[in-house]
């Protein structure tokens, strides 16, 4: 290779090296500052292509997305001096890059440490002003909203970051008191269950008594109607018999005698003891039947 070609190659290499140390890109997910001899010359670099002085300027890039921080598990006392073990987390995001860099030198560990300390003190104060029942159910959301607002104000002023949310993942009772609390809660639930059972038995008795009373009323009404219908039927039958008897009394008497014979001698073993002149055989002894 000639000296001229070698010079061209060296020049191209220097240009590439110079461009690589002069140009840098900040993406939409990032926030950055440009430093010159350790001093900030450009804060909050916008997304896109930027230029710096090679080998003089330095660029610090930070993640601009929402960050999650697990607050170390801690033991707090409620208003009635009952201990609870709280496991919480914080969602935060860099807002003022210049303030963030000056306060922490870009050290995320220091940011997490400072936020954890401030969150711990606020959680301790809030838990100390509430009862255990309010912490578990009633006012927890309101309490966490107050902590988020307070912590966000301090974090922005001191660190240049915004606290978007503070949430409690889990609230447990310490192992030394969980047994007694569980027993107390169990006895309370058993008492409540017993009250429900007693009310249920009382309601069941009332329902059964009402149903039995209604049953007796229905049966009585049905019996009354049945007796009325039966009486009406007997009266109608008697009327029919009387009318038939009036039309031909002799034939009707003969027909009734035949039915009596059939019913009396239904079986070969039937025996009937009568006087010879009994009216029972009047139609068998005399042709006229009289």
TrEMBL record:
Domain of life: Bacteria
Record SUPFAM superfamilies: Band 7/SPFH domain (SSF117892)
Matches recorded under InterPro entries: Band_7, Band_7/SPFH_dom_sf, HflC, Stomatin_HflK_fam
Keyword terms, alphabetized: Hydrolase, Membrane, Protease, Transmembrane, Transmembrane helix
Keyword Cell membrane: no
Pfam families: Band_7 (PF01145)
GO molecular function: peptidase activity
Gene Ontology BP annotations: proteolysis
Subcellular location: Membrane
Domain Band per the UniProt entry, residue ranges: 21-185
Protein's membrane topology: Single-pass membrane protein
PANTHER family: MODULATOR OF FTSH PROTEASE HFLC
Protein family membership: Belongs to the band 7/mec-2 family. HflC subfamily.
Known role: HflC and HflK could regulate a protease.
Protein name, as recorded: Protein HflC
Organism listed in the record: Parendozoicomonas callyspongiae
């Amino acid at each position: 290779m000639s000296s001229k070609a070698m010079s061209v190659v060296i020049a191209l290499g220097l240009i590439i090296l110079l461009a690589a140390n002069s140009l840098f890109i900040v993406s939409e997910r990032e926030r950055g500052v440009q430093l010159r001899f350790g001093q900030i010359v450009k804060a909050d670099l916008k997304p896109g292509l930027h230029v710096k002085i090679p080998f003089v300027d330095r660029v610090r890039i930070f993640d601009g997305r929402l960050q999650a921080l697990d607050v170390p598990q801690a033991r707090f006392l409620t208003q009635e001096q009952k201990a609870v073990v709280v496991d919480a987390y914080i969602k935060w995001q860099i807002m003022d890059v210049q303030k963030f860099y000056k306060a922490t030198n870009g050290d995320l560990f220091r940011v997490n440490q400072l936020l954890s300390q401030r969150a711990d003190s606020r959680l301790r104060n809030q838990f100390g002003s509430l009862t255990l029942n309010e912490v578990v159910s009633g006012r927890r959301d309101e309490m966490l909203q107050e902590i988020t607002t307070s912590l966000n104000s301090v974090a922005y002023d001191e660190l240049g970051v915004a606290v978007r949310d503070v949430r409690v993942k889990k609230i447990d009772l310490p192992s030394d008191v969980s047994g007694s609390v569980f027993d107390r809660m169990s006895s309370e639930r058993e008492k409540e269950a017993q009250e429900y059972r007693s009310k249920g038995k009382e309601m069941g008795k009332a329902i059964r008594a009402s149903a039995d009373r209604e049953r007796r009323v229905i049966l009585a009404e049905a019996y009354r109607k049945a007796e009325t219908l039966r009486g009406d039927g007997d009266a109608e039958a008697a009327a029919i018999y009387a009318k038939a008897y009036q039309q031909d009394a002799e034939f009707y008497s003969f027909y009734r005698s035949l039915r009596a014979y059939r019913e009396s001698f239904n079986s070969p073993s039937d025996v009937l003891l009568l006087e010879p002149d009994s009216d029972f055989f009047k139609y068998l002894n005399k042709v006229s039947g009289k």
